[in-house]
Amino acid sequence: MSHYFLAVHSDTERPPMSAERQEQAWADTGDFNQRMREQGALVYANGIASDSRVFDARGEHVAEAAGPFADGPRRIAGFWILDAPDAETARAWAIEASAACNEPVELRAFL
């Protein structure tokens, strides 16, 4: 089995979901997480705050700035770490994750 990272990308320039749609997305995501648990695929999942701090200690002094590090309208809003036998299975989980949370989901393999 291999581990994969699924990142939920939220677009800050898009109008927010209605409260009703957001509640449904949370419920659907909870159901999705339960299916992953039952099938032994879920290693860890969580949402993350939109505010962040960036630290750069490559030089003599530590630089600190308000994040996120990457500029642009998309922010990582949550993630899953999953265990899957192959990339095709991980791809299927990513598609299901996107449908559940109603956001684009990026799939990456761990090295």
Describe this structure in words.
This protein is an alpha+beta fold and 111 residues long. The protein is built from two helices and six strands; from the N terminus they run βαββββαβ. The protein starts with a strand and ends with a strand. The relative contact order is 0.35.
- What is the percent of helical residues? 25-40%
Task: Briefly note the CATH topology name.
Answer: Alpha-Beta Plaits
Order of helices and strands: EHEEEEHE
**CATH superfamily descriptor:** Dimeric alpha+beta barrel
Number of domains: 1
Describe the sheet with the most strands.
4 strands, antiparallel
Task: Note the beta-strand portion.
Answer: 35-45%
The total count of helices amounts to: 2
Which strand order do you get reading across the main beta sheet? 2-5-1-6
Contiguous uncertain segments of 5+ residues = none
How does the helix and strand content classify structurally?
alpha+beta
- The CATH architecture can be named as 2-Layer Sandwich
* Mean pLDDT over all positions: 92
Counting DSSP E segments of at least 2 residues, the number of strands comes to: 6
Radius of gyration: 16 Å
Straight-line N-to-C gap: 13 Å
Shape: globular
